[in-house]
């Protein structure tokens, strides 16, 4: 257990979410990931990849993107996203992320490697303004509003990429 950015994190440590990174994160996303971890009932391993918690470059529309006031040093927009690897069936973890009504952005990535460099499915969880779900496979992104076969395709992927 650790206090991270003012949030009591029973299932996470400073090693997983270091203070020098956590200070740029919304306390709400930290509370939400702790709550989700309790609902999930298995470990949720935060990705150690660069940008999995905060980003200072790249797409400014990313929920990972942080804006710091150059003059005052105050955080104007904290990160509101976390990437991680559920230590259970990704289909179950994705379903719980969608149904728990905590996150407004839920993405599942079928083309990622875990913190040990082994292939493992990853979840992106965020607190965006407008709800959005998606998946990424083979480096390509798929969204239900752009693909009528979205749910059939993701179901088939889940059935063939069980972990």
What's the CATH C level? Answer: Alpha Beta
* Amount of beta strand: 15-25%
Structural class category:
alpha+beta
Order of helices and strands: EEHHEEEEHEEEEH
- Overall pLDDT: 94
- The domain count comes to 1
Features of the shown structure:
alpha+beta, single chain, Muramoyl-pentapeptide Carboxypeptidase, domain 2, 4 helices
Can you describe this structure?
With 163 residues, the chain is of the alpha+beta class. The protein has a single domain (2-160), classed as Muramoyl-pentapeptide Carboxypeptidase, domain 2 (2-Layer Sandwich). Helix content is 24%, strand content 24%. It has helices at 19-22, 27-40, 90-99, 150-160, and strands spanning 2-4, 7-9, 44-46, 67-68, 75-77, 81-86, 105-109, 122-126, 132-137, 140-142. The strands form 3 sheets. Strands 3-6-8-7-9-10 form a 6-stranded mixed sheet, covered by helices on one side. The chain has a two-stranded antiparallel ribbon with strand order 1-2. The longest helix is centred in the N-terminal third of the chain and has 14 residues, at 27-40. The radius of gyration is 16 Å and the shape is globular. The model has no long low-confidence stretch (mean pLDDT 94).
Produce the secondary structure layout.
Blueprint: E1 2-4, E2 7-9, H1 19-22, H2 27-40, E3 44-46, E4 67-68, E5 75-77, E6 81-86, H3 90-99, E7 105-109, E8 122-126, E9 132-137, E10 140-142, H4 150-160
Parallel strand pairs: 7-9
Antiparallel strand pairs: 1-2, 3-6, 4-5, 6-8, 7-8, 9-10
């Amino acid at each position: 257990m650790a206090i991270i950015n003012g949030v009591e994190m029973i299932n996470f440590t400073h090693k997983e979410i270091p203070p020098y990174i956590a200070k740029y994160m919304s306390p709400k996303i930290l509370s939400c990931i702790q709550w989700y971890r309790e609902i999930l009932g298995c470990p949720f391993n935060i990705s150690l990849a660069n940008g999995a918690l905060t980003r200072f470059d790249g797409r400014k529309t990313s929920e990972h993107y942080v804006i710091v006031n150059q003059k005052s040093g105050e955080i104007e927009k904290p990160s509101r996203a976390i990437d991680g690897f559920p230590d259970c069936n990704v289909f179950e973890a994705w379903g719980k992320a969608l149904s728990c009504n905590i996150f407004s952005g839920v993405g599942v990535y079928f083309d990622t490697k875990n913190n040990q460099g082994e292939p493992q499915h990853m979840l992106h969880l965020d607190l965006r303004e407008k709800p959005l779900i998606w998946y990424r496979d083979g480096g390509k992104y798929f969204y239900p509003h752009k693909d009528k076969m979205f749910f059939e395709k993701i179901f088939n992927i889940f059935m063939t990429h069980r972990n």
